[in-house]
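Hi Prof. W.,

I finally got the biotin--[biotin carboxyl-carrier protein] ligase prediction working! I wasn't sure whether to trim anything, so I left the full sequence exactly as given:
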Amino acid sequence: MTFSLGPRATSAGYRLAAFDQIGSTNAEAMALARDGVLGPMWFVTSEQTAGRGRRNRSWIAPRGNLAGSILEMIDVSPAVAATLGFAAGLALETALQRVSVEASLRSAGSDQLKFSLKWPNDVLAGKQKLAGILLEAEAVAGNRLAVVVGIGTNVVAAPEGTPTPATSLAALGVQIGAEELFAVLSDAWVEFRGIWDDGRGFDAIRKLWLQRAAGLGERVAIQTGGSPLEGTFETLDESGCMIVRTSDGRLVPVAAGDVYFGSAASVGAT
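And this is what came out:
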């Protein structure tokens, strides 16, 4: 089976570059954007050898996993572009729900899985990381912003020794190929990219994201480089910051950091 766009993505005019193997789909997409290639365009592979996650962490996709990046040219500020990552999370969660439903129908008696969105950019199955998202933006010729959203999903295998324990669709009993998942994801992207509407629809995206948020209303500890910030995950604000209510009642916006559910003692231990 080869990679192909879903029917909705094809009708919307998206293009596709598929690779048997590549270092990084994000790097390829941004390099072509600098050379004048316009989006919207997907770059996808089932084997990525030099991918990156947040904070330059290695993100390797062994053969059979899904690594894809979508290039969009958007006339918005970088701050607004950053909120597109939440639409990406919704698109991926929706695609995973759809393929898991299909898998459960194919396998009589299997349970439908539930997924959740962990701020700012992970998809969880239970308490385990199933997928991650990396958004990068760069000004290119014509004063336009090239936005590349990288999406990596553990389809057949999951890394070990990660800060948050990881899992794969195969380990969860979902027997599906990266190609099938990608086709569904490409259509879901069109849906939520449309709702986001160059940031004008972020309020709707925010509400949908909160309905799927992991740990909402629960204790969190956030590592931002200094001492952990502890409190309760209160909500998501209009710019995409996590709002944490501290023990003294303060509402603290957090723009970036590693989130751990539970107390500060759990930071770095899960």
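The CA atoms of residues 14 and 40 lie 5 Å apart. Does that look reasonable to you?

Thanks,
D.
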